[in-house]
Amino acid sequence: MRLAMIGLGRMGGNMARRLARAGIEVVGFNRSHEAAEKLAAEEPNATAVPTLEAAVAALDAPRVVWLMLPAGAPTEETLNRLGELLAPGDVVVDGGNANYHDSQRRGALLAEKGIGFADAGTSGGVWGLENGYCMMVGATAETFAAIEPAIRALAPGEDRGWAHVGPVGAGHFTKMVHNGIEYGMMQSLAEGLALLEGKQEFDLDLAEVSEIWRHGSVVRSWLLDLTAEALKEDQKLEAIAPYVADSGEGRWTAMEAIDQGIAAPVMTLALQMRFASQDERGYTNRLLAAMRNAFGGHAIKKSG
Questions:
Q1: CA distance linking residue 33 with residue 52, whole number of Å
Q2: Which of the residues 43, 175, 249, 256 is marked catalytic?
Q3: Rounded Cα gap, residues 54 and 20, in angstroms
Q4: Measured distance CA(9)–CA(17) in Å, rounded
Q5: Cα–Cα distance, 160 to 166 (Å, whole number)
Q6: Environment class of residue 297 by beta-carbon count within 10 Å: exposed (0-12), middle (13-18) or buried (19+)?
Q7: Can you tell me the mean pLDDT for 107-124?
Q8: 153, 15 contact by CB (below 8 A)
Q9: Beta-bridge partners for 166
Q10: What pTM did the predictor assign?
Q11: What is the pLDDT of residues 163-202, one digit of tens each?
């Protein structure tokens, strides 16, 4: 199999490497050409090209072009260009974190030109090169068959960690909910460990506690594994700012829960806690302090 990987950042670059090491020929293109050249220098099954047009030209029909680009404009613009460069029978895979509504729309537009489209929800982070990626794919049966060898190569195993979960849109929808769950799990672990750290009279060793939880407990998980490793290095975490970014999928999950009328308080509150960490102005809390002072004469702590 031969495919083009467009976008060779932290995820795309490692995915290209895993594919190449599985014997799949990879044509790599990245806006910063150095990343493509580095890939080609490291992997015998990979080549670097300077443009999107060159990536398409390097493939034999039917062509498979895999995108690992940021959601939004970069993906939209590239898909529009591919719609002009590709031909009926070719396939485009979007492995980034796109909104599933966008994936449904994009799939329909490409289908009008006879071009197959697959939305591949991808989980595994920076560890995917070594451990494999969990792949959740939305596509027609015909399109999925065209990319199945690549999905098997990327997954943790040929028989596990991947599935053709449904039609176009289903892959990114499944990954969206996956990320919402991830938000809730992370928040719960962080809150629990903060409670342990706050009980100063017990002088608990958080690295020790998180390590013993990894073995036999009902809360053991990969997230706990990563947390335990971080705490071994530094329990104080004083060098890390208390700011937690959100990538967008937590927002989409909360909005989907509202649209469906399904209660999802844990995932939604975990998202709201991330917003709270990002509030550098603290205007809400300033107002609360002003209100308490106004109705009850409670003291206000002056800033600065």
A1: 11
A2: 175
A3: 19
A4: 12
A5: 17
A6: exposed
A7: 97
A8: no
A9: 138
A10: 0.93
A11: 999 999 999 999 999 999 999 999 999 999 999 999 999 9
* Both structure tokens of 11: 């995820």
What residues does CATH 1.10.1040.10 cover in the chain?
176-283
Which amino acid is present at 240? I
Catalytic-residue membership of 175: yes
- Is domain 2-167 annotated with CATH 3.40.50.720? yes
The CATH H-level (homologous superfamily) assignment of domain 176-283 is: N-(1-d-carboxylethyl)-l-norvaline Dehydrogenase; domain 2 (1.10.1040.10)
Cβ partners under 8 Å of residue 98, min gap 6: 71, 75, 106, 119, 172
Catalytic residue among 25, 37, 76, 182: 182
204, HSE (Cβ side, Cα atoms, 13 Å): 17
Nearest-angstrom CA–CA distance, 85 and 80: 9
- Report yes or no: 94 and 119 within 8 Å, Cβ to Cβ: yes
Place of tokens 């039609």: 167
Which amino acid belongs to residue 122? T
Catalytic residue check, 182: yes
| pLDDT for the residue numbered 248 | 87
3 state SS of 157: strand
Residues of the chain with CATH 3.40.50.720: 2-167
Structure tokens at 161: 């960690």
Model confidence pLDDT, tens digit, residues 21-54: 999 999 999 999 999 999 999 999 999 999 999 9
